[in-house]
UniProtKB/TrEMBL annotation, chain A:
InterPro entries: RBD_domain_sf
Superkingdom of the source species: Eukaryota
GO function term, MF aspect, one: nucleic acid binding
Protein name listed in UniProt: RRM domain-containing protein
SUPFAM superfamilies linked: RNA-binding domain, RBD
Originating organism: Drosophila guanche (Fruit fly)
TrEMBL record, chain B:
PROSITE patterns: ANK_REPEAT
Pfam families assigned: HA2_C, OB_NTP_bind, WHD_HA2
Name of this protein: Blast:Benign gonial cell neoplasm protein
Helicase-associated domain sequence ranges: 681-785
SUPFAM superfamilies: Ankyrin repeat (SSF48403), P-loop containing nucleoside triphosphate hydrolases (SSF52540)
Keywords: ANK repeat, ATP-binding, Nucleotide-binding
Any GO MF annotation of the entry: RNA binding
Domain of life: Eukaryota
Length: 261, 1213
């Protein structure tokens, strides 16, 4: 592969990236970044035989690769899966047909699936601690950036926070970061992935009683009247790391929400 | 020929031995086995003891009568029938029963590993190419121009073209480690030549920090032009031209690829002689012969760098003349510091505890015993009668200033009474203080004067002339009180303008302790405000970031170890307090063990530390906490570490680098060749644990140990932990052994002056606490486990605790933070070395199946600690070991009580075998283990037939190694040997194939067998333990997910820093003119105290009290009187139990009145009333009907002091 001009290769801890060097326009890039047309490649054990450059080479024949993320262990041998994205996201379907065969031709057994692109994490903080959702939110802002958060009180004083991230990779980094700092969210807090079949995507509603919070996270009237609130988009101050979108935060019973789905 | 050997040679050898200094000697296989009998006969006729040994063939060991190594008789080992059945069943199931004769297949012998097969972690270095041209912007150009050596740069580059080795020597402020790579890179870019620059640092954090700064120059993220490669973090791409790493890591990668593809090596801090850097230099010298175009740049801070060019036999030195003019700081030594402090008249707080009566003195048997010693001495006054006292001081940590419980006399006073100058001299030399007064208010000096004996008076006079710096006369005791005094000088006296202060301490433990002391003084409002930052080796890079990104206008106090000497910081220091000592890890070849030793640093090191002061500022000061005379006696340059450390890891590294060279030959050619005896010992040890085979080749074990960042023996313990499926507790023990022990028994010098009267009491309590944690398991290693678990449980239910209770708590949290940091580091390395897998049968979960079983953990310890095994000799009532002549039990261990003679501790021994961690001739930490565990896991992995010989009554002797010798019934021996074989089969299989993860998937048979063996062993060891009388173990729980706050100290220091508070009250700042707020020159803080009544516990109170509540009960009173110079404190009082619970500072932040909790403890009111009486303050009345009331300032201050300087052990309830 042409690593001088066309592609760049990078190794960051447990991932090897081969990414295009092309500068893409803003819209396309943000689409791709949030996982448009991502493919999930699953290898068969033993994994040592799978070589990233060979795979990238072959995949590159179909179209220009945006990025291929190859997960490796400490020996730089594959951990059994990789992610592939073309600049042209519409190649996804074609790739699933063609590539599998092409790989088989060079006797690589690779299963190609559309990526689920899991990018939502569930964090449950429990009753008994004095952690209000607001505190969790503020703590989380300090920890790492996320796109949005939705909060459900599914048992009295037990909250479920759904954090969503720009893509799977960001979420992966975040979950590791949160796990090491889980103690910040109280003793009973735990965090896990939100599987696609449990998605809670359709519920970004605003209830009647919710009060608007300003950018300082201060309620405009007295906060004690009800414990639910929404935030307007925080103004991103200069030098601040926060890259969130509109952040909504509603509180409701989880079972209600399931009925909605 | 035979006759010559028999008649001449053998007697001659033996006579040489008799005449020689050694107490015992092995006579190896040069004699044919038929001659062994003759040999033994001759030896006996000379009155010597002999023993047949089996280690790589039969040999004879000869002992003199006095030798303490000799095991007169083998230790007996048997086990119960139930155990036999268990083992038989197990062997049956693992299909090992049928084969009667021992299998001697080739893979049973430790095999030579193929070095090429050991993988190199991470990517090979990317290909080399010229950097792409880019346009520099102004900031980059300006950055380059800031380099003090910018004007010389052409010269240096010219030199690099002419010479392949350039030594660049300049002090830290030149920031060479950042600028040199940049300049070389720029040059390559301009000339379009290939650039691949490797920058080598001493420590991981240094490399991380450096790489960040380099990337900052290119305005890029890490992983583009600048990359990093470290064991657990790598970030590198095809564009990378500058790679930061550590010497250890680079050496590890060089085992496979020699310096191909690299244009420049920049090695930082070569003058510090880090052992790995020294080895790397040899490797570079070899590389230079093979690669014509390689360039090596060595950076150092020393005046004379010729030794490096001499070592490379080429190259030049470049030592620039002074870059910027520097003003020399004023340097003060101990005497000067003491006089300055006494002139300044410092008033520290904590008066309150000064009068605490010594009611604790009379209670314990230890006191009674010491009283008897003193009484006997007082009665006779002879040399003989002082001996027990001196023994207790030297070996049992009794303070030399011990005061008799009733008369209050110290040994010095008695010596003065008896008018015995030689005793007086000895006692004073040992650090006795002649000013301590007895109950009649007489001290040694007044007593001597009343006796009118000139000699004693002279001795005492000359002592008082030398000053009172007993504590500071030894490098191992850091005088915290003096440092605190200095802080009072610098932070309260107007003649010392405020500025950043750097304190250099020997170890992390000292940092944590001083951190608490400073915080408690500062939080009482007695010092001007500052923020504390910490720098040490085992920290995340966030600690450095916190310091570098701190606000400019804060006064920073940096507590650092010697890492600060190689860390260029953009912080200008006005004061340096240098303890001038350092902890070295020194190998002592006379007793075969490495020990931590505190020593004064050399003069060059002091100079480096001095140069950390801001050169541009005019009135910088450096305080060295050593006396001028000591300073004059220091050596010019520090010794190279390679010559002193234990060389086990180095030997393995060297062997991996050049497998065809003898280790001692290779090390002999390094820049600082270590003593041959050290190398020899290290190689012997490695052979003994089978990391090297008999012909000094790496075995598979050796290969695996290379990648575990702990000493070899501890690494091997981890491997046993993995194989016995109890990795978690073993990890905890291994990590605890490599960090400071929070429960070690302190010397009186370790205790602050406030409490050192209570030394004995504190020591007893700590000893009791150790006893409680050990819970009759006769193990110090068990204490580590329990302590870690207790701490973990206390963390589990809480957020990182941001209030203080007392010093011990704080230190414990700090030490545990480091422990969990190192622990997770080790886990990552084990994963990286493929010893723990992500899937299959070797996952973390699977390897912890037996983690709750202490009996198995003990077995793992036995295997891992070998050859550090001692055995009890009942007749002589002493401990014997293969290595040391005399083994003492340190007062630390739970195997003996204070002042207990060994013969009575030995009565409690459940088993004669003890595995131990040694320090000199002391057993510092010991664990009593079963004979069966020793028979199973000690010694080489293969027991040969020749190591077994029949004895009487159907018994057999087993010579496990040349020293361990056991006798057991034949049936038992058979079972043991077979189980051993079974286990070690799996052991070798695992070591050889662990990097092949697919072999260990879920349906693999390998681990199933192992699991079976372990299960049986667990059962068997448990039965046997109970049978010999160990009490039942308390549960040790294993937590699958460890939830630990990672940066406790960082959080705490941030939480209590001024810096943070400014941030919080930004709004107020805007309204207020800045100057008045920051003008803290005049240090007058007024303090007001409120008492708040509560019925709840402290925790509930802070959880439930809402802002409006606090506002309503407190805000209306406190708000109007609050000002920057008047602090409001709130004391929480629980009336129904008459206790003070907590003290917090109240402050208006962002318009909200909030409480920040400072200290939490339980202080009964009667204590406060007593304290008031002692300093004659009118007694307060707390039973007012109001919820909240203002109290007298003096009483408030007193309560604050009571909270801030509480002692964990003394005030324990």
């Amino acid at each position: 592969m042409d690593f001088q001009t066309k592609y760049s290769k990078r190794h960051l801890n447990g991932t090897i990236y081969i990414a295009t060097r092309r500068v893409l326009e803003e819209k396309l890039r943000s689409e791709l970044e949030s996982g448009a047309g991502e493919l999930y490649l699953r290898f068969k054990a033993p994994f040592a035989a799978y070589d990233i450059e060979k795979i990238a080479q072959l995949a590159g024949e179909l179209g220009e690769i945006y990025v291929i993320r190859f997960k490796v262990d400490f020996r730089n041998e594959s951990r059994g899966y990789a992610f592939l994205q073309y600049i042209d996201a519409s190649l996804q379907a074609k790739a699933m047909e063609v590539l599998k065969q092409r790989f088989r031709d060079i006797s690589l057994d690779i299963n190609i699936l559309p990526s689920r692109n899991l990018r939502e994490l569930v964090m449950i903080t429990s009753a008994g601690t004095c952690l209000t959702p607001l505190k969790v939110y503020q703590q989380m802002l300090k920890l790492c950036s996320f796109n949005s958060v939705r909060v459900y009180e599914y048992r009295p004083n037990t909250y479920m926070h759904v954090f969503s991230y720009v893509n799977n990779e960001a979420a992966t980094l975040a979950i590791r970061h949160i796990r090491t700092n889980i103690l910040l969210f109280g003793s009973a807090a735990h965090v896990s992935w939100l599987r696609t079949n449990q998605t809670l995507d359709h519920d970004d509603f605003v209830t009647e009683c919710c009060q608007q919070l300003d950018s300082q996270m201060k309620p405009e009237s007295n906060a004690e009247s009800c414990s639910c609130f929404t935030f307007s988009r925080p103004q991103v101050e200069e030098g601040q790391q926060f890259q969130g979108n509109a952040t909504t935060c509603g509180i409701m019973q989880l079972n209600e929400c399931k009925e909605e789905l | 020929m035979n006759e010559i050997i028999q008649d001449k040679f053998i007697p001659q050898q033996l006579l040489y031995f008799v005449a020689g200094r050694r107490c015992c000697q092995e006579f190896p296989c040069t004699f044919r086995s038929t001659e062994h009998d003759i040999f033994q006969q001759y030896a006996r006729s000379l009155g010597l003891l002999t023993q047949r040994m089996f280690s790589n063939g039969e040999m004879i060991k000869v002992f003199k009568r006095t030798c303490r190594h000799y095991l007169e008789e083998p230790k007996i080992m048997t086990f119960s029938p139930a155990t036999a059945i268990n083992i038989l069943t197990m062997l049956g199931r693992t299909t090992n029963l049928g084969k009667d004769e021992l299998r001697l297949s080739s893979d049973f012998i430790p095999q030579r590993a193929c070095v090429a097969e050991i993988m190199v972690p991470h990517l090979p270095f990317p290909t080399i190419k010229p950097p792409t041209q880019r346009i520099k912007d102004d900031t980059q150009r300006n950055l380059l121009k800031q380099f003090p050596g910018y004007s010389f740069m052409d010269t240096v580059m010219q030199m690099l073209y002419k010479q392949r080795v350039v030594v660049f020597s300049a002090d830290l402020s030149w920031d060479k480690s950042v600028y040199m790579p940049l300049l070389i890179f720029e040059d390559c870019e301009a000339k379009k030549t290939n650039a691949k620059i490797i920058c080598i640092e001493k420590e991981n954090v240094l490399a991380l920090h450096n790489s960040k700064r380099l990337a900052h120059y290119f305005a890029e993220d890490l992983g583009e032009t600048v990359g990093i490669q470290l064991p657990h973090s790598s970030n590198i791409s095809s564009e990378t031209h500058i790679i930061c790493s550590t010497a250890q890591y680079v050496l590890r990668s060089l085992t496979k690829q020699k310096c191909l593809n690299i244009s420049h090596f920049i090695v930082n801090d070569v003058d510090l002689h880090d052992p790995y850097i020294d080895v790397l230099l040899s490797e570079l010298r070899i590389a230079l012969t093979q690669h014509q175009n390689l360039r090596v740049v060595l950076l150092c801070q020393m005046a004379d760098a010729r030794k490096f060019t001499e070592f490379f036999e080429e190259g030049t030195e470049f030592i620039p003349k002074e870059g910027a003019p520097k003003t020399a700081p004023s340097i003060s030594y101990l005497g000067d510091i003491h006089s300055r402090i006494s002139v300044a008249g410092i008033h520290k707080g904590q008066d309150i505890y000064k009068e605490t009566p010594e009611v604790y003195r009379t209670k314990t048997p230890r006191n009674e015993q010491m009283d008897k010693c003193l009484e006997a001495y007082e009665e006779f006054g002879s040399d003989l009668s002082i001996r027990p006292f001196l023994y207790a001081v030297n070996y049992d940590l009794v303070p030399v200033n011990y005061r008799h419980s009733t008369t209050g006399k110290t040994a010095v006073i008695i010596a003065a009474q008896h008018n015995n100058p030689s005793h007086l001299r000895v006692l004073l030399y040992m650090g006795a203080d002649p000013y301590v007064a007895d109950e009649q208010l007489q001290n040694a000096i007044t007593v001597a004067a009343s006796m009118e004996k000139n000699e004693c008076i002279d001795i005492l006079n000359s002592f008082s002339l030398r000053g009172n710096a007993i504590k500071s006369a030894k490098p191992e005791f850091v005088d915290y009180d003096l440092i605190i005094d200095l802080f009072y000088l610098l932070r309260t006296k107007p003649e010392y303008p405020s500025g950043n202060i750097l304190v250099i301490l020997p170890t992390y433990y000292h940092i944590v302790k001083l951190n608490y002391m400073l915080l408690s003084h500062y939080m009482c409002g007695k010092l001007q405000e500052f923020s504390i930052f910490l720098l040490h080796e085992n920290m995340g890079v966030e600690y450095i970031d916190e310091l570098v990104n701190a606000r400019q206008d804060t006064d920073k106090v940096v507590l650092a170890t010697d890492i600060v000497e190689s860390l260029p910081l953009q912080v200008s220091f006005k004061y340096v307090i240098d303890t001038a000592c350092k902890q070295y890890f020194v190998y002592n070849c006379s007793n075969y063990c490495a020990e931590h030793r505190y020593e004064w640093v050399a003069k060059d090191c002091l100079l480096r530390r001095e140069s950390l002061l801001d050169g541009a500022a005019s009135d910088t000061q450096c305080f060295r906490l050593l006396s001028k005379t000591t300073f004059n006696m220091l050596t010019e340059s520090s010794p190279a570490q390679l010559q002193r450390i234990q060389l086990d890891k180095i030997c393995l590294t060297v062997k991996a680098l050049s497998p065809h060279k003898i280790i001692s030959e290779y090390l002999g050619q390094t820049i600082s060749p270590p003593p041959v005896i050290n190398v020899h010992h290290a190689v012997q040890l490695l052979k003994k644990i089978e990391a090297l085979n008999e012909v000094e080749e790496l075995t598979w074990l050796g290969c695996r140990l290379l990648d575990i960042p702990v000493p070899c023996q501890l690494g091997r313990m981890l491997i046993y932990g993995i194989l016995l499926q109890c990795i978690d507790p073993v990890l905890t023990i291994v990590t605890s052994l490599s960090t400071a022990d929070p429960l070690s028994i302190p010397f009186t010098e370790d205790i602050d002056s406030l409490w050192d009267r209570f030394t004995i009491y504190i020591q007893n309590l700590i000893k009791n606490e150790r006893g409680r944690l050990a819970d009759n398991q006769f193990s110090d290693h068990f204490i580590f486990l329990r302590l870690f678990q207790d701490w973990q449980n206390s963390q589990k239910s809480k957020m990182p605790i941001l209030y203080f209770t007392n010093e011990y708590d704080f230190i414990l949290n700090g030490l545990m933070e480091q422990l969990s940091f190192i622990r997770s580091n080790i886990v990552s390395s084990l994963r990286a070395a493929n010893l723990i897998h992500f899937r299959g049968t070797m996952t973390m979960k699977n390897l912890n199946v037996l983690s709750g079983n202490w009996h198995v953990v003990k077995a793992a310890l036995t295997g891992g600690m070998y050859p550090n095994i001692c055995v009890l000799d009942v007749n002589k009532s002493c401990l014997k070991s293969a290595y040391s002549e005399r083994m003492h039990l340190h007062p630390n261990t739970v195997l003996r009580d204070f002042l207990e003679p060994f013969s009575s501790s030995a009565l409690n021994f459940r088993s004669p075998w003890v595995v131990c961690t040694k320090q000199r001739n002391y057993i510092l930490y010991a664990t009593m283990v079963l004979p069966m565990a020793v028979a199973m896991f000690a010694g080489p992995s293969r027991i040969r037939n020749s190591q077994i010989s029949p004895s009487q009554n159907d018994n057999v002797n087993i010579y496990i190694d040349e020293w361990l010798w056991m006798v057991m019934p034949k049936t038992v021996a058979e079972l043991v040997i077979k189980t051993r074989q079974c286990f070690y089969d799996g052991y070798h299989e695992f070591l050889k194939h662990c990097s092949d993860q697919d072999k260990w998937n879920a349906d693999s048979l390998l681990m199933v067998n192992q699991g079976l063996i372990n299960e049986t062993l667990a059962k068997v060891f448990e039965n046997e333990d109970l049978a010999v009388g160990f009490s039942k173990t308390p549960n040790i729980h294993y937590h699958p997910i460890v939830k630990l706050p990672t940066t406790y100290l960082l959080t705490v220091n941030r939480h209590f820093s001024w810096n943070q508070e400014i941030e919080d009250s930004k709004d107020i700042l805007v309204k207020r003119p800045l100057s008045s707020y920051f003008d803290v020159h005049s240090h007058f803080i007024e303090r007001q105290f409120f008492v708040l009544h509560t019925k709840e516990t402290c925790e509930d109170f802070y959880k439930s009290s809402s802002t409006p509540f606090i506002e309503s009960v407190l805000g209306k009173f406190a708000r109007p009187i609050e000002s920057p110079n008047r602090h409001i404190f709130v004391i929480l009082y629980k009336k129904n139990e008459d206790e003070m619970l907590s003290i917090s500072r109240a402050k208006t932040i962002n318009g909200v009145f909030t409480l920040k909790e400072y200290f939490r403890n339980v202080i009964p009111v009667y204590e406060i009333i007593e304290a008031c009486r002692s300093i004659s303050v009118s007694m307060p009345n707390f039973d007012g009907r109001l919820i909240c009331s203002l109290i007298d300032k003096r009483v408030g201050n007193l309560i604050m002091d009571l909270f801030a300087f509480r002692h964990h052990w003394i005030h324990k309830r």
